[in-house]
């Protein structure tokens, strides 16, 4: 494949957790707007179908298997895009899980899974892409946190803690990288996605069922991400909170 020519209109955008929900919606919208999307997730069949859909609609996309809890896989994901296209313009650290439960349920395995995916996954994305962006003297991280980074609800203590960590890491990164690299934190309120399917605890599942009565479509979050990416290089949209008009979450 011929390397993409750098331009202000088309960017090479890497998206983790791209097989469904916010990641999928973001990939589709960015491709519609002329960007080349590099899709990563564990569910490769879904990734393949998404990439084919995007190309059939006239967009530009490729896909790679990716488990963000594996630092080497994330590095290989970024390196493959860089080797093929000569640059990495945007890294969207979107992959996340949300198995809600009260702390008294003592679901340690689920807590650790959230820490591994929601925090380590973002750190792995930063570790893989930051040296590339430093060397090319431009780039942007879009880290998907949550409204849970700003408010805590019952059953969501650990989830909110991981998303506050994403917010804190993003803010620290923004202050460290200076003028060459932009950092955006996107905090969705309750959004239509498959995250709720990971909730095995009945109390947590019922809590989310209540929240989801006013859920906004994943495409709304994709539009916020696209807005941040499409700003002029001298503009850094540091944080966007997107929540339903009808609810508090």
Automatic annotation (TrEMBL):
Entries under InterPro entries matching the protein: KR_dom, NAD(P)-bd_dom_sf, Sc_DH/Rdtase_CS, SDR_fam
Domain Ketoreductase: 11-193
Keywords annotated in UniProt: Oxidoreductase
SMART domains membership: PKS_KR (SM00822)
One GO MF term attached to the UniProt entry: oxidoreductase activity
EC numbers on record: 1.-.-.-
Class of the enzyme per the UniProt entry, highest EC level: oxidoreductase
Gene3D superfamilies per UniProt: NAD(P)-binding Rossmann-like Domain
PROSITE patterns from the UniProt entry: ADH_SHORT (PS00061)
Family of the protein in this entry: Belongs to the short-chain dehydrogenases/reductases (SDR) family.
PANTHER family from the UniProt entry: DEHYDROGENASE/REDUCTASE SDR FAMILY MEMBER 11, DEHYDROGENASE_REDUCTASE SDR FAMILY MEMBER 11
The protein's name in its UniProt record: SDR family oxidoreductase
């Amino acid at each position: 494949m011929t390397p993409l020519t750098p331009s202000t209109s088309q960017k090479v955008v890497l998206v983790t957790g791209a097989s469904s929900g916010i990641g999928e919606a973001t990939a589709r919208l960015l491709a519609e707007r002329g960007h080349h999307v590099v899709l990563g997730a564990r569910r490769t069949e879904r990734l393949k179908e998404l990439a084919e859909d995007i190309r059939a609609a006239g967009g530009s996309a490729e896909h790679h298997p990716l488990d963000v809890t594996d630092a080497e896989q994330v590095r290989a994901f970024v390196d493959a895009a860089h080797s093929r296209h000569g640059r990495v313009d945007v890294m969207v650290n979107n992959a996340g899980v949300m198995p809600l439960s009260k702390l008294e349920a003592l679901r340690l395995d689920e807590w650790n899974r959230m820490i591994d995916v929601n925090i380590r996954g973002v750190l792995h994305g930063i570790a893989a892409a930051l040296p590339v962006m430093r060397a090319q003297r431009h780039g942007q991280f879009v880290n998907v946190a949550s409204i849970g980074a700003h408010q805590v609800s019952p059953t969501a203590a650990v989830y909110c803690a991981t998303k506050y960590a994403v917010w804190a890491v993003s803010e620290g990164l923004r202050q460290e990288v200076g003028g060459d690299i932009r950092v955006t934190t996107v905090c969705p309120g309750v959004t239509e996605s498959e995250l709720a399917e990971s909730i095995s605890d009945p109390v947590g599942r019922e809590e989310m069922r209540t929240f989801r009565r006013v859920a906004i479509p994943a495409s709304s979050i994709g539009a916020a991400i696209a807005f941040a990416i499409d700003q002029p290089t001298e503009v850094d949209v540091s944080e966007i909170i997107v929540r339903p008009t009808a609810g508090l979450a």
